[in-house]
Amino acid sequence: MLKMTHLSKVYRTEVVETYALRDFNIDVKEGEFVAVTGPSGSGKTTFLTIAGLLETFTGGEYHLDGIEVSQLNDNARSKIRNEKIGFIFQAFNLIPDLNVFDNVEVPLRYRGMKAPERKERIMGALERVGLASRAKHYPAELSGGQQQRVAIARALAGSPRLLLADEPTGNLDTQMARGVLELLEEIHREGATIVMVTHDPELAARAQRNVHIIDGQVVDLAEDPRFHTAYTAAAGQVRG
Amino acid sequence: MLGYYVDLAVRSLKRSPGLTLLMVLAIGFGVAASMTTYSVFRAVSGDPIPWKSSQLFVPQIDIWGPKGRLDGDNGEPPDAMDYTDAVALMRAHRAKYQSALYRISPSIVPPDPSKHPVSVGGHAVYSEFFAMLDAPFKYGSGWSADSDEQRAAVVVLNSKLNQKLFAGANSVGKTVDIDGKDYRVVGVLDNWNPKPEFYDVVNTGGFTTDQEDVFIPFQRAIDVGMTNDGNTNCSEIPKESGFVGLQKSSCVWIAYMAELDDKAAVAAYKDYLDGYFRDQKQAGRFNWPLNNRLRDLPAWLDSQHVVPSDTKISLVVALGLLVVCLVNTAGLLLAKFLRRSSEIGVRRALGAPRLAIYTQFLIEAGIVGLTGGLLGLFLTWAGVISVGWVLPKEIATLAHVNLSLLVLTLLVAVIATMLAGIYPTFRASRVQPALQLKSN
């Protein structure tokens, strides 16, 4: 579903080159739920934005659903984002001027979908996240957990093949976070491929597979004593 | 998608009413200032007879020579004719149509003895004047060449005077008392009031609030001593006093126009005019070189500076003001659009191509322009009404609001605002979604 090979991302200034990702390799199969972890500044979010075609990369290859994306123009990248990818952000990123219905509608508008189909999909997605009754509410009238559920509904409405989540519970309290996580697990059980960036070992442990990034590279956690203890313990707690 | 973008734009503009109001005011005032001055400029600079102006010519004969010229004349011969030359050119009859003319101001004595005589304005012209200028008649027609010859007491009225004297009825055949003499009405013009008054720029400056009420045969007016109510310029004091003395003098006071249909006719007429000068020189009347002119109507109006220079300056200043307003609007749009960078980032992440963002924000700029244009319409209307405060009355009265000005005002507002929105919109469409989403 998502395959990056020897991928690199370099930020250049006049005096310095900074590698955000270096010789980065990852292969996410269809239907997998992968957690991407790593310390701050390790390149997790850069990976996610490149995976979501929001940013270009400097070298290497990236195949998304079988398509090599490096040569695609803005229109083609936008079309893939719209049709194949759903985003869930830490800060929810709902548009404050639009009510819940209209926020969920945004990706469907860019797909050129007819109004009846849009409505059916939006209400279906809102029912799934338990917020159909709040369709006319504005983001400011909702709790953080509800806002994230709206963001998930927005991501789901377009029936994407790949769901990219960036710290989806980072701004939520424990109870709300649990609810969101259960929702993601449910979506995964129904067949969606999910790649989730997180700092939270407990959250990461709920994924099928963990990928760890340090200094812009994927590392094998089992071979790195700095992280082994913490992650194993957290995973054990969750699974136990 | 257009409806969607319009809806988004309206929501966005409602969200920041103060900023929106500032932009609308800037556009409204900028457009109104330019359209008000443009309405004046359009009124004074338009071709008064576009279908024929290239065939109408004004001859000038240098009867004064270098000594008679004033500083600033730039070697130009007098802009009008003396009586001798005007009559000679009419007699020669070398053009398809031609007419000498001068401004008159007779009194009309109403048939009702209880009413006082009224002073009216008009011109003494030759019969070909009406055909030459395609003057439209409501009733009847102009008089014949025979009436010119016979110095007939005939008159053509304009529709306003006909309304006043005959309640607008067909008055052809009826008589009008002009300066105590009866004149038979042969025609009534149909709201003919060309601006500028191109056939007699010399005496009217092109624009006058005086009415053109009556037209009387030229030689009839001379015979009955209807004096010139326009300008008279002399290079020397006439030897005899009075109207007859004026006719014998070298003072210029008669306008002249001829219709020449093609280049050959123009060349032939110029030859005739130059030949006439040489004949007069040979006869001892002139002792200076040939310096005649034969300009078509547009060139003539230009040479006479019919469009007032302050009107041109006002237009330039107003357009400058519009540019300043647009630059301000561009700055406000830029601030407004970039404040929504995170929304742009989200939309891009959800599949909006750059073009979609560009279109969305350009439509928002267009709606600001349209709203500013609507305000501009009202302000333009108010400006046109008030233009008399800053411009001479005869110019100010020409400015008016019509459908084309309304449409133009809206178009200028929308197009100008969209032009002002190009850079802010471009910047908005270049927002890096990754950067915005990371920073949130």
From TrEMBL, chain A:
The keyword Acyltransferase does not apply. It holds the Pfam family ABC_tran. Keywords: ATP-binding, Nucleotide-binding, Transport. Residues 2-240 form the ABC transporter domain. GO terms for molecular function: ATP binding. PANTHER family: ABC TRANSPORTER ATP-BINDING PROTEIN YTRE, IMPORT ATP-BINDING PROTEIN. This is ABC transporter ATP-binding protein.
Automatic annotation (TrEMBL), chain B:
Keywords: Cell membrane, Membrane, Transmembrane, Transmembrane helix. Residues 316-433 form the ABC3 transporter permease C-terminal domain. It is a multi-pass membrane protein. The chain crosses the membrane at residues 21-41, 313-335, 355-381, 401-423. It is found in: Cell membrane. It comes from the Bacteria. The keyword Cell membrane applies. Its main location: membrane. Residues 20-273 form the MacB-like periplasmic core domain. Pfam families: FtsX (PF02687), MacB_PCD (PF12704). This is ABC transporter permease.
